[in-house]
Specification:
single chain; 234 residues; alpha/beta; Lambda Exonuclease, Chain A; 2 domains; 7-stranded mixed beta sheet; 8 helices
């Protein structure tokens, strides 16, 4: 299947989706966004990295920044923080460059390595887009974390590729349905910039009909409705 360009999703959204599907839907379906300390810090790091006028050459290594990538097969488009072209006999020819090169994407993150795989999935999606664009196979990439100032190697093996493509398909399905899912509150909600928009704590209250049924004994409908409103605002 090939997606038309007007159905392309943002490549960076896969990180949001893997972290929290509701967060992804609020941002990418409902166009809602709020900044906090974490997002602003991340934006500053990416501003330093995303200078598309920068192209470094260090011997047999060429580094490009803010490289635009897309894939009609996956229905994705976006940018790679950095793409490294390593001169290698097993590589591929690249337009405008002499020699043949091995392609290595690098994604920059502000914090430390995470327990979940949301950053890994984003990097893998970048690699899949680059493969479709350049007709090559990319075996590895790196995640650079600002807190540790170290790179973490990511191998693009078959299970990771399958997982990445499955998540992308799920994103397209929710986008097609224009559906914002509900979520259970968890510890990660405390650091989310959309906490005041998402209001995950309200998921604990249950539907209004259940509350009204429980409290209606001996009260008028108006009294019960007022009580429910007070309960919600507490």
């Amino acid at each position: 299947m090939m997606y038309p360009e007007d159905e392309y999703l943002m490549l960076s959204g896969i990180q949001h989706f893997a972290f929290c599907r509701r967060q992804w839907a609020l941002i990418h379906l409902e166009q809602q966004w709020e900044e906090n300390l974490h997002t602003m810090d991340g934006n500053l790091m990416h501003e330093r990295v995303h200078d598309d006028s920068l192209r470094e050459k260090r011997g047999d290594l060429v580094i490009t920044r803010a490289m635009a990538v897309s894939s009609a097969r996956l229905g994705l488009s976006g940018e790679c923080d950095a793409v490294e072209f390593h001169r290698d006999r097993s590589g591929i020819p690249v337009f405008g460059m002499e020699g043949i090169y091995r392609i290595v994407p690098v994604e920059y993150k502000r914090g430390a390595p995470k327990e979940n795989d949301c950053d890994v999935l984003q990097l893998a999606a970048q690699a899949l887009c680059l493969e479709d664009m350049l007709c090559c196979e990319i075996t590895e990439g790196f995640l650079y974390y600002g807190e540790t100032r170290h790179r973490m190697k990511v191998l693009f093996d078959a299970p990771l590729r399958e997982r990445t493509e499955a998540v992308i398909a799920q994103m397209h399905e929710l986008y097609r349905r224009h559906h914002t899912p509900v979520v259970k509150r968890r510890k990660a909600c405390n650091a989310c910039s959309l906490r005041e928009i998402c209001l995950p704590q309200l998921e604990k209250t249950g539907p209004a009909s259940a509350y009204l049924k429980k409290c209606c004994t001996g009260r008028t409908h108006h009294e019960t409705a007022v009580q429910y409103a007070l309960h919600q605002s507490a």
